[in-house]
Structures are given as C-alpha cells and as structure tokens.
Amino acid sequence: MFLYILGLAALWFVYRWYKEIQRVPNKQDKYVFITGCDTGFGNVLARHLDKLGFHVIAGCYTEKGEDELKKLSDSIKTLHVDVADSASVKKAAALIKTLVGHKGLWAVVNNAGVSLPSAPNDWLTIDDYKIMLNVNLCGVIDVTLGVLPLIKKARGRVVNVASVFGRISPFGGPYCVSKYGVEAFNDTLRLNMAQFGVKVLCIEPGFFKTNVTNTKLIKDDLSKIWDRLPQDVKDDYGPGFLERAFSKLDGRFNQLLDGDLMKVVSCMEHAISAVHPRTRYSVGWDAKFLWLPLSYLPSCITDYFFLKDAPEINVSVP
User: With contact defined as beta carbons under 8 Å apart, do 30 and 51 qualify?
Assistant: First the structure.
C-alpha cells in the first residue's frame, strides 16, 4: 500500500513538473507592466523579463529609478507612476494603452509596496494606516482596474504581490491588514476574470532582503513613532521596551532574511510566462515551513507562539 501511494505521488509530481515547464509562445509580442521597479523584486524582474524577450514597461516612483534602468537596457520602457495617486495611475494607464496598441497588455505585476509605518496598533493613528493602505492595497486595486481592459483584450495575467503575512499576522500595524486585503482582492478578481480567459495569480514571499525588510529603516521609523507617543502610552510598555523590541527584531531578521531575490522573481516570471501558472506562489523556506503551517493551526497555539517571542512589557504594578 505504501509503495502504491508513493508511486501515485511520484506520478503526480512528474505530471505537475511537465505541466509547469510549458511556456507561452511569442514572448517578443507580449507587453508586461511592473510597478515598483526602482529597487528590489520589481527591478530584478524588469531586467530578467527584458533578457527573456518580453516588452517590459517598468513603473518607477523616482527619476533615479528610471535613469538606472535606462542605463542597463535600451529596450525597457520606463514611466513614472505613484500608485497611491489616482491621477498618476490614470496617466500611466493611458500611456500604456498607446504603447501596447491592439495587442493589449499581457501582464501587470503589482509589485510596488511599503512596510512603514509599522508598530503596535495602539502606537498608530488612522493616518498611519491610510499611508500604507493607499500604496499596498488601494494602489494594487487602482492599477489593476486601470489596465484591466487591456489585460482582457490580451487574455493575459494579473500578478499581485501579497505576502505570507496576508495569511497570518505575527505583528501589529497596517502591513498585514494591507496584505490580507490584497489576498481578498486577488481571490475575487480571479473568479470574476475566469470567464474572460484572464488568469489572476498571487505571490506570497516570506522574509527577503529588500528595502521592505531594511532593519535600519524599520528601527528609525519605530523610534520616531515612539518619540511622538504620549507619556501614558510609553508608561504602559515600560522603560527599555524599545531596546528589547530592537533586539527581537534583529534576532528574527538575522534568522529568516533570505538574500536570493531570484527565488521570488522566478515565481513572478513563471506566473507571467507559464502556460499553466499556479494560483499561489508561497516563496521562501520560512513561508513554506514556518508561517504557512502556523496559519493553519488554532489561534490559541499561534497566539502562544507569538506572545512567547514578543518583547517583554516591563511595567511595575503599584
């Protein structure tokens, strides 16, 4: 019986491998729009797809990001887009329409995202939430809706970059909230677009070494938020809390950060170019063997796990 099950499992993996190696033809006729190409995953993906022969339209937030990509390749078309600004998104969508013409847009990769501000919920204001939600969630929706008619024309792909923290929330603040929203938008859009032949895929990276996980930036931002807190909130957490939080942050990131961005970029490329892409790509050993398994456990277990690892609140009880 065991050998029979093992044989079926082997056949399944061979079948999946054969199915997933098939690639779409005529890459040279296909346009791909990527947001957040200044640095990180978006930058590496733009250069990678360009080498594969796709027409790459790289959305950058800064002129520096555009200039650096232009120096690396004459064939990558860059444009400025602030995904949190609807006027900027509309302008970018209009330009993309003129570039792709009757062929339509084969794929959009909603990669742009930020991780700050990030802090315990009671340290933050609603405006702190709006800053991140406008980029990570509303920006994804705005960009997608702006180019969706072009995607439908090409019967192409929408690739949304969420996070494994759209499946589980080990820390406070708006980041996980925004990524849960991306997951929900992705799931509903996938069902809406199925009858149009449009595939909607989701990338769920774990901890990778990008600006999003830059510990210096995170610590500096956390210090600024701490400094603006009213004294009674600081008293709730007790003296030395910030230093203990920094220590926990360093320990967790040193253990989990992965510097190989191609692991994520390869999944993005597969979502764009495979004849049969996966619905979800959970990328990184921490995503596969830590965060996702935890997300399926009862809340009492995950709460215990996270609280055990949390920085201690040192308050003297009167």
Answer: no
DSSP states along 8-33: HHHHHHHHHHHHHH-B-S-GGG-EEE
Q: Tokens representing 307? A: 């609280």
Catalytic positions, written as ranges: 175
Residue 187 backbone class (left: φ over 0; alpha: ψ -120 to 50; beta: rest): alpha
Residue 224 CB: number of other CB atoms within 10 A? 12
Q: Kindly give, in sequence order, each residue whose CB lies less than 8 Å from that of residue 182, ignoring residues fewer than 6 positions away.
A: 110, 136, 137, 140, 160, 161, 162, 163, 166, 202
Whole-number Å distance between alpha carbons of 175 and 181: 10
Cβ distance 117 to 137 under 8 Å? no
**Segment 151-165, tens digit of pLDDT:** 999 999 999 999 999
Which parts of 53-102 fold into alpha helices (H)? Answer: 63-72, 86-100
Buried b (16+ CB within 10 A) or exposed e, 93-113: bebbbebbeebbbbbbbbbbb
Half-sphere exposure of 1 toward its Cβ, with a 13 Å CA cutoff? 0
Q: Residue 154: name the closest of 214, 104, 195 by CA.
A: 104
DSSP of 158-179: EEEE--GGGT---S-SHHHHHH
Least confident stretch, 19-23, 205-209, 302-306: 19-23
CA angle 20/22/28 to nearest 5° reads 130
